[in-house]
Amino acid sequence: MTDRLLVVDGLVVTMDPDRRVIEGGAVLLEAGRIAAIGDTAALRARFPGAPELSAKGKAVLPGLIDAHAHAGHTLVKTLGGGDSAKWAEAVEAIYPRGATPDFWGADGSLAALERLKAGVTTSLSIFGAYGSRTDEASHALAHASGYRRVGVRHVICPGASPPPYPNTFFRWDGDSHESLAVTLDRQLQVCEELTAALHDRQGAMSRVMLCAPVAFSGRPGVTAEIAAQYDDTAKQVRALSRRLGVGFTQDGHKGGTVRAAAEAGLLGPDALLSHCIDLHEDEIALIAESGTKVAHNPSANFSIIGRCPAIELMEAGATVAICSDGTAPDRSFDMFRHMFQAMHYHRRHFRDAKVLPPGKALEMITCDAAAALGMAEEVGSLEVGKRADLAIIDLRKPHLWPGDMPLYRLVCFAVGSDVDTVIVGGRIVMAGRTVLTVQEDEILDDATREIGLALDRSGMRPMTVTPESFWKNTRYQ
C-alpha cells in the first residue's frame, strides 16, 4: 500500500452530500484512506513533497460499486446460444454438479479482473440460492480468494439452495465424483463458517451477506407445499443473518413476493432485494417504509419480462442501486453501460426524456450503491476519512469530446475501457490499464481450462454451439 499519494490536476467528482465537482482538483491518500480533498495548488502547499499521480485530462471518481451479481457467471456467458431456458439448464447442471473449488477460484479471479478494469472497486456476488455452492466452504473460499488476489473489495453472499431438501451436489476427484445429499442445516452451518472466515468488519476488503431463495409463481415444480418450505428456509437464513450481524439478500423478487417477504419478517435496513419487477403499490411502500434496499438490474433478463419501478421506489424514499446482475447470459460488468441502459429503460416506460438524470444514475453506482450494501460510511464517495478507492477515467477520447460538459460525457458516453487507473485502499491496482496485481493471461488461461472441465463433467458442451437461427432471423427459433 502506498502510505501517501497526492492525485493532482483532475476533475474530481466527489459524490459527497454537496455533490462537489472540483476542476483542477486533488485528493490526498494516506494509510489507505482519503486524507484531504481540494484544489491542487492548495493541497500541494499543505503537503509539500507528497508523491504525486497526475490526473490531468482525467476525471477522478469514487470507485464504482456493483451491488448485485452472481458467482460463476463469468464462465458461463452465452451458453445456450440465446435460449434463456437452455442457459438456465446449463447453470443448474454446472454449478451444483460440474463445478469444483478450482472452477469457483477461476471465476472469482476473472470476475474481479473484469470489474477492476471497468472501474469497479466494491462488488457483490450471490453464492447461495439457485444452485450455487454452500455444501462445502471450500467453493466460496476459492471464489473469494480470486477477488483478494486481484484486489477488489467483495461482498460474498452464501445461503441456502431452494427446497426440497436434501439438495444434491457433486464432489469431484479427477474424473470421478461423489454425490452429496446436503441438508438445509448443513448449508446454514457452511454459511456460518464462511461468515467467520470472510466477514472483515474492520478492513472492508471482504464482507458477507446471507442469501435465501425466493419462491415466485410460475417457477417449475413449486407446489404450495414447496412454497411453504421456501418461506421457512428464508426465515431461517434471515434469523441467522441477524444473529451473525450481517446483511440479508434475496434474488428474483417480483410482484407479490415482496409482500410475502414482509409478512415473513425478512425486510429491514440491512436487507437488499434484487430485481423487484412488477411490484404492487403497497410493496413499494413496504420497501420504502422498512428501509429495505433494492438492486435494480436494467440489463438483466428479468428486466425484459417485467419492469422494476426504480423511479417510483426512489420517489417513495427507497434506496436503489443500479447493478449488473453478473455477466451471463449476455451482459458485462461495465457499469457505464448499465447506467445508460437504466436511463433509457425508464425514459421509454414514461415516454419522458427528463426521467433519471445522469447525475442520479451516477449516484446509483456510487453513494447509493454503498448505502445498499451497508457500506456508506466506508465507500461510495470521495470524503475525508473514507476508504481511498478511486476510479480515474481518461476524458481525452473522441467519444468524450468536446470536454465542455464532462459530467454528461461521463455518464452518457463513457465505457468501462475508458478507466485508466484504479486505486483500492490507497493501493494502485491498475495504471494505464495495466493491472499490477496479477498476470491477466494466467487468469484467462485458468478460466478457459475450468469452464472446459465443467462443461465436460456436466455434459453441457453442446450448449456452446451457435444455433442456426443466429443468422438471417429476426427472432431465435
Describe the structure in brief.
The chain has 15 helices and 19 strands.
Strand content: 15-25%
Largest sheet: 9 strands, mixed
* Portion in helices: 25-40%
Shape: globular
CATH topology of the largest domain: TIM Barrel
Q: Which CATH first-tier class of the largest domain would you pick? A: Alpha Beta
Task: Provide the gyration radius in Å.
Answer: 22 Å
Output mean pLDDT.
96
Structural class: alpha/beta
* Number of separate helices: 15
Total strands: the figure is: 19
Question: What is the CATH superfamily label of the largest domain?
Answer: Metal-dependent hydrolases
Instruction: Give the low-confidence spans.
Output: none
**Kindly, what is the distance between the CA atoms of the first and last residues, rounded to a whole number of angstroms?**
53 Å
| Count of the domains | 2
- The CATH architecture of the largest domain can be given as Alpha-Beta Barrel
